[in-house]
Specification:
Chains A, B: This is D-isomer specific 2-hydroxyacid dehydrogenase nad-binding protein. The structure is a homodimer of 332-residue chains. Chain A has 332 residues and is of the alpha/beta class. Chain A has eleven helices and 14 strands.
């Protein structure tokens, strides 16, 4: 049985009184009452929200990340597990956490269904020309835009087969799309018709009608989409970027759009955010720009807590959390 | 065995020569070569496309409808079956066809997947505020619109559970929506969580986050959505109209949008089409207008021919076509 370590209470066990310490979980963020209760009930721990530095220093598990946590981490503390509130952890002190042997689990997947839905929104705008109809509406013009199609049987290439890619693949299958994935080794993933290794990217790009970049940012993924990749794409294909801005070479994309090397793009993430008012991207032909909105979801906290509670069942038994655990060697 | 009636050829059958007449199928429209071949091969009939009046008068089955067919119908002809090229048949001389006992099958379902996809496009624009982001993009403004949500667990009420409703229900389920249907008798339909009778419409409307009108136009459906129905809807709910324009009372909808009785609307069909340049609808708050584009699909002819060929297997045996056969009493 796992040793509980804080805020003890006396309990009669086998005829003797023993001090049972209660684990402390501290959340940086506020949590809805019902979620806080669920967390306390299912872990048996004392749950503190909007925790102070002192409270964070006493906690074994911390939910969320800010400067306070960073401060606590460098001093004396009891931290064994950090549950990040973001999917990407490229801004975390990974080397320090690795050295201190602290588990770091991400919120990966918590906003994946929302991102996948937003990507379908972009795809449907492009396929059904809804953004073109919106322009026509503004001009009071009754006109059927050219080139309206169904997503049915169109080829979707998802680069990055993590939780976003998987959610997206599942939705795209419902539309009758042919769904292909690209990941590190080309291993097969559910809901994909086929998967290819990242080394094969340029070979599979020409076939795709829609290319979705859902890559994490790692030392290996910077500018994965650059001049060569856009050249390899069909000039009837659309590029959608919802992973991390730095995985796209913005100036190469700009050239590709201007020169008609690809049919259009939807971008939710950028090399520099916020996108400056005088960026030339805003007015490129056939571009849809959203202000890093794809991850917005009304289910975020619920899904992180559910993922955390799954992991807690292992942690409680002295095992490492398994879901969304950061591999410090890979950096994600 | 069905009697074939045109363009005979001699065939040796059981040692004797017999005249085998070849049925004639005439299409009003041009057909892609491969579809024409498929049709000829699978029916054994002679297939004429872009048929003249004389050719139409000789045909037992006519694909499509125009003034020529109307002319042929009123004179001497061999027509037994009309395969419409549209889903709605409210513009056909139904009484005349009923009286002449001519089968009329519709193209219902041929554009249903495309319409369903376009409806998902509207829903995702509303849920993910993509149209709001598009306005912000035009203003070079980096801003996360308020109220972005997932479709997950939202309640979708589809009024009309025909082929459009069914395609839509299937897609919506993939998004984790709760899908309810309204049809004449409230009979259950696949992919709907529950179905209600049209008499219960006003009782179920208040619960819906999205209401999709996919009704056919019949003597019973005119202005199904009028003042009372919009009042019954939640002020956070969206109305989407993709069936027939006349099933919506436009002026009541306009009032509902102006007074904030509903959150927004997407309209693809209108009481008067084309929508005039000076219509007040174009600039209503939170409205998306498309120029009857939802039915646009790159699979239209293929799906009609497939449906026709399914029916042909029955017809060939002297039975009535079953799929999409118009019931002249109901008018659809």
């Amino acid at each position: 049985m796992y040793k509980l370590n804080w805020s003890g209470k006396w309990l009669k066990i086998k005829g003797k009184y023993e001090v049972i310490f209660k684990m402390k979980i501290a959340s940086v963020l506020p949590l809805k009452g019902e979620l806080q209760e669920k967390l306390a009930k299912m872990t048996g721990a004392k749950v503190v929200t909007e925790a102070s530095v002192a409270e964070l220093a006493q906690a074994e598990i911390i939910l969320g990340w800010d400067e306070k946590v960073s401060e606590v981490l460098s001093g004396e503390n009891k931290i064994k597990w950090l549950q990040a509130w973001s999917a990407g952890v490229d801004n975390f002190p990974l080397a320090e956490l690795a050295q201190k042997e602290i588990y770091l689990t991400t919120a990966s997947g918590a906003n994946a269904p929302g991102i996948a839905q937003q990507v379908l929104g972009y795809l449907l705008n492009f396929a059904r020309k809804l953004h073109v109809s919106y322009d026509l509406q503004r001009a009071h013009q009754w006109e059927i835009p050219a080139g309206i199609m169904e997503l049915t049987e169109r080829k979707l290439l998802i680069v990055g087969t993590g939780s976003i890619g998987q959610s997206l693949a599942q939705l795209a299958q419902a539309f009758g799309m042919k769904v292909y994935g690209v990941n590190t080794y080309g291993h097969h993933v559910m809901n994909f018709n086929d998967c290819y290794a990242i080394t094969e990217l340029e070979t599979v790009l020409p076939e795709a009608d829609f290319v979705v970049n859902a890559l994490p940012l790692t030392p290996h993924t910077k500018h994965t989409f650059s001049k060569h990749q856009f050249s390899a794409m069909s000039d009837k294909a659309y590029y959608i970027s919802v992973g991390r801005g730095q995985t796209t070479d913005t100036s190469a994309l700009e050239t590709a759009l201007k020169e008609g090397m690809i049919a259009g793009a939807a971008l939710d993430v950028f090399e520099e955010e916020p996108l400056s008012k005088d960026s030339t991207l805003w007015d490129l032909p056939n571009i849809l720009i959203t202000a890093h909105t794809a991850g917005q979801t009304n289910f975020y906290a619920e899904r992180i807590i559910d993922s955390f509670l799954l992991n807690f069942q292992y942690y409680q038994q002295g095992l490492a959390p398994a879901k969304n655990l950061v591999n410090y060697d890979l950096g994600y």
